[in-house]
Amino acid sequence: MSHSVELQRGIRATILSVVALVCLGMLTACGPSRSAKQAEAKTDDKGAKRYILTGRVVSIDKPTQSMNVDGDAIPGFMAAMTMPYQVKDAGVLDKLSQGDQIKAEIVVANDGAYLENVMLAKKGVAPNPTK
């Protein structure tokens, strides 16, 4: 009978070990995803942080050299939101229209934040003119 009790204890210990390993594996898998890790800021040689922004152009304001962008969330930096961004290269505003999908870098430096390397990802549908 003692042999049977020892066997049951051994089986229980093995089962508990397997359950513990599975739980540990799940905790590791539930950490930040690879894409979230890639969203971390890159710091350039001037100490400015750069984040990749994807979003849709809501409006363009050439006199202030800015545009409103409905941006996707940037994990570890900001939630999805619509906000204005300054653009260092004013010529990029001539190439964009309301509704265009863009990809750019948000540069966060001591003198403020602005967009660089703005690229058209997908041309937006032109709004219908009202009659």
Key phrases:
about 130 residues, alpha+beta, OB fold (Dihydrolipoamide Acetyltransferase, E2P), 2 domains, 6-stranded antiparallel sheet, about 30% helix, elongated
Written account of the structure:
The chain has 3 helices and 6 strands, in the order ααββββαββ. It folds into 2 domains: 2-31; 35-122, OB fold (Dihydrolipoamide Acetyltransferase, E2P) (Beta Barrel), CATH 2.40.50.320. Strands 1, 2, 3, 4, 5 and 6 form a 6-stranded antiparallel β-sheet that branches. The termini are far apart. By secondary structure, it is α+β, with helices and mostly antiparallel strands. It has helices spanning 2-29, 34-38, 91-94, and strands spanning 42-43, 49-61, 66-71, 81-86, 101-109, 112-122. Helix content is 28%, strand content 36%. Residues 20-24 and 26-39 have low confidence and may be disordered.
Provide the fold topology:
Layout: H1 2-29, H2 34-38, E1 42-43, E2 49-61, E3 66-71, E4 81-86, H3 91-94, E5 101-109, E6 112-122
Antiparallel strand pairs: 1-2, 2-3, 2-5, 3-4, 5-6
Query: Proportion of β residues?
Result: 35-45%
**What is the CATH topology of the largest domain?**
OB fold (Dihydrolipoamide Acetyltransferase, E2P)
Shape: elongated
Please report the total strand number as a whole number: 6
Largest sheet: 6 strands, antiparallel
CATH superfamily of the largest domain: Copper binding periplasmic protein CusF
Task: Give a quick precis of the structure.
The protein is an alpha+beta fold. It has helices at 2-29, 34-38, 91-94, and strands spanning 42-43, 49-61, 66-71, 81-86, 101-109, 112-122. It has 2 domains: 2-31; 35-122, Copper binding periplasmic protein CusF (OB fold (Dihydrolipoamide Acetyltransferase, E2P), Beta Barrel), CATH 2.40.50.
